[in-house]
């Protein structure tokens, strides 16, 4: 089972029924006592305890001791949310217990694939009894998880066979790490792992203040790397701090990599501002804060027969809180609605526990966090329900390609696969991009100019995606932008104007029918750009102080002319009513229309000179 030793860091978690000897086992294995004084007096671990040991090559393996009592099941989730290996402890003189089942179920629900079973207190039973316990344990683990565990028997108090346990843990950790390296390598050959894979990810399990140092956060660094001087962000508080010092396994370090138990001194974050359950990430990582999500159920309690809406407690990382659970019919999906927005990650494992109780109701993994339009729901549920059994980073991208035709990827080194087109920061399914481009050309080819916002609404596509597609079509001379709307074919493109001119044009369009009045608004660049934009007919001056966007002006002209024919007469009251403008603006509008040859003044009336086409 041994693997060629390499540099690595790993974390093992101990779980099992109360008083089955987990804390004593850790002391025998590491020489460290994880129980706090009050826990030693109770004879029961209440919260997470931490220790570590090293293999023969100097690699450090962290050890997390999780509570065995049912009241602390949520703390148990906090301890196993990111482990390389679970060590499930069973006392030989008591055998498999209800909380052993609960701990195994939670660990399996949280995605732990490598389980070692340690039968402790073997000195208290006969060889025949020990063999019976081994059979019982093997049967329970295989039945409940489908995994075939390695089993070792020891006596922690007598330090009997501890070295065999130690070596078995080392071998299992090395196999776990080697397997995940193979998976990561395969992912790189396909679509590449998520760009955030090297960014830090750590749920906080403790926060305290050290005199002369400041706020210290502890947790398991599950992903990426932390170094002194790094900026980090806390979610959901959105606080930003700087890493001032790092300690791992009683050593001061300048940097640390996953997977590792770590204590980090953060400058700029106060003890009262953050707490257990918050998520620490790199400052630029894209983390979704949502008050609801869709999850895929991976494990369901056998006694849970009726799938109806209910309140549940959700444990995720070191966070736990309540949520409303609603099942999505005819799928293995469910919706969770939380009391307030929390950070959510694709593929993140979570456990749902009976509210106020200790029984695991479901294990699940997050598969969707965005808003869902009504027309999307059925197709979305079909796609989510057919995701691969083992979610990988590329699973989310493949899902988005099937569902919407594109996904976002800000990685500068990203390389699109065959049948994909990358236009930073989006990667498109090439066929979807061709079909959508053709659909846009067909829409505009009908003679109707459309703004980007109109196209977004009509095609139900992200505005940033529409902009990329339109710019691509513009470069191919298939469309051009005129008066804020896209038109078919070649032509002058207003978005090619200098930035100062574009800023003024945007400013005028924001005023709409109110117009831009020079005596009320400061214009960057002054009249130089106003004259240039007027000359290019992007805007028009009703008089020397009032400017309208040309598109708005033409809409007003159309409203005035409407169904009139040449030689028809209209009054200023007609113009005011048809345009909805005040007299202050309707008179300058009529004068502008006269200059442009639309009407001719005859005393208090205007004579139509040409019809609207």
From TrEMBL:
GO terms for biological process: selenocysteine incorporation. GO terms for molecular function: GTP binding; GTPase activity; RNA binding; translation elongation factor activity. GO terms for cellular component: cytoplasm. PROSITE patterns: G_TR_2. Keywords: Cytoplasm, Elongation factor, GTP-binding, Nucleotide-binding, Protein biosynthesis. Transmembrane segments: none annotated. The keyword Protein biosynthesis applies. It is found in: Cytoplasm. Residues 7-177 form the Tr-type G domain. It holds the Pfam family WHD_3rd_SelB. InterPro entries: EF-Tu_GTPase, EFTu-like_2, P-loop_NTPase, SelB_WHD4, Small_GTP-bd, T_Tr_GTP-bd_dom, Transl_B-barrel_sf, Transl_elong_SelB. It comes from the Bacteria. Translation factor necessary for the incorporation of selenocysteine into proteins. It probably replaces EF-Tu for the insertion of selenocysteine directed by the UGA codon. SelB binds GTP and GDP. This is Selenocysteine-specific elongation factor.
């Amino acid at each position: 089972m041994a693997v060629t030793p390499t540099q690595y860091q790993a974390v093992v978690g101990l779980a099992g029924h109360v008083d089955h000897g987990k804390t004593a086992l850790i002391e025998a294995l590491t020489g460290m006592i994880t129980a706090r004084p009050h826990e030693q007096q109770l004879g029961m671990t209440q919260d997470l305890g931490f220790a570590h040991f090293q293999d023969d090559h100097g690699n450090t393996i962290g050890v997390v001791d999780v509570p065995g009592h049912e009241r602390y099941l949520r703390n148990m989730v906090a301890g196993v949310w990111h482990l390389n290996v679970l060590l499930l402890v069973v006392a030989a003189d008591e055998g498999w217990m209800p909380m052993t089942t609960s701990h195994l179920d939670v660990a399996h629900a949280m995605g732990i694939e490598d389980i070692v079973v340690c039968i402790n207190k073997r000195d208290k039973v006969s060889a025949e009894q020990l063999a019976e316990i081994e059979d019982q344990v093997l049967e329970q683990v295989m039945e409940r998880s489908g995994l075939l565990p390695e089993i070792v028997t020891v006596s922690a108090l007598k330090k009997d066979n501890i070295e065999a346990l130690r070596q078995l843990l080392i071998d299992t950790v090395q196999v776990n790490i080697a397997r995940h390296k193979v998976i990561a390598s395969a992912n790189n050959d396909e679509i590449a792992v998520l760009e955030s894979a090297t960014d830090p990810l750590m749920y906080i399990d403790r926060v305290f203040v050290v005199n002369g140092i400041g706020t210290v956060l502890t947790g398991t660094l599950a992903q990426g790397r932390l170094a002194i001087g790094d900026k980090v962000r806390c979610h959901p508080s959105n606080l930003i701090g700087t890493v001032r010092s790092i300690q791992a396994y009683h050593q001061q370090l300048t940097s640390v990599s996953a997977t590792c138990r770590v204590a980090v001194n953060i400058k700029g974050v106060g003890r009262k501002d953050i707490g257990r359950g918050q998520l620490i990430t790199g400052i630029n990582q894209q983390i979704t804060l949502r008050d609801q999500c869709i999850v895929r159920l991976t494990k369901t309690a056998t006694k849970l027969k009726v799938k109806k809406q209910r309140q549940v407690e959700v444990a995720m990382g070191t966070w736990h809180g309540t949520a409303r659970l609603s099942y999505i019919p005819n799928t293995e999906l469910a919706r969770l609605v939380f009391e307030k927005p929390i950070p959510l990650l694709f593929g993140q494992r979570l456990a749902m526990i009976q509210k106020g109780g200790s029984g695991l109701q479901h294990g699940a993994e997050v598969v969707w966090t965005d808003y869902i339009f009504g027309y999307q729901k059925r197709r979305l549920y079909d796609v989510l329900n057919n995701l691969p059994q083992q979610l990988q980073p590329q699973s989310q991208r493949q899902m988005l390609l099937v569902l919407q035709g594109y996904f976002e990827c800000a990685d500068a080194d990203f390389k699109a696969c065959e049948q994909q087109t990358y236009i930073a920061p989006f990667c498109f399914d090439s066929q979807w991009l061709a079909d959508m481009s053709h659909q846009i050309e067909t829409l505009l080819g009908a003679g109707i100019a459309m703004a980007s916002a109109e196209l977004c609404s009509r095609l139900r596509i992200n505005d940033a995606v529409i902009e990329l597609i339109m710019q691509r079509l513009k470069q191919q001379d298939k469309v051009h932008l005129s008066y804020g709307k896209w038109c078919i074919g070649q032509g002058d493109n207003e978005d090619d104007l200098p930035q100062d001119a574009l800023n003024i044009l945007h400013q005028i369009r924001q005023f709409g029918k109110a117009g831009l009045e020079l005596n009320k608004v400061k214009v960057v660049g002054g009249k130089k750009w106003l004259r240039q934009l007027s000359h290019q007919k992007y805007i028009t001056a009703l008089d020397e102080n009032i400017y309208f966007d040309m598109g708005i002006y033409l809409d007003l002209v159309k409203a005035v002319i409407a169904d009139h024919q040449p030689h028809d007469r209209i009054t200023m009251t007609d113009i005011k009513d048809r345009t909805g403008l005040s007299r202050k603006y309707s008179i300058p509008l009529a004068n502008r229309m006269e200059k442009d040859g639309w009407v001719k003044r005859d005393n208090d009336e205007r004579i139509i000179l040409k019809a609207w086409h």
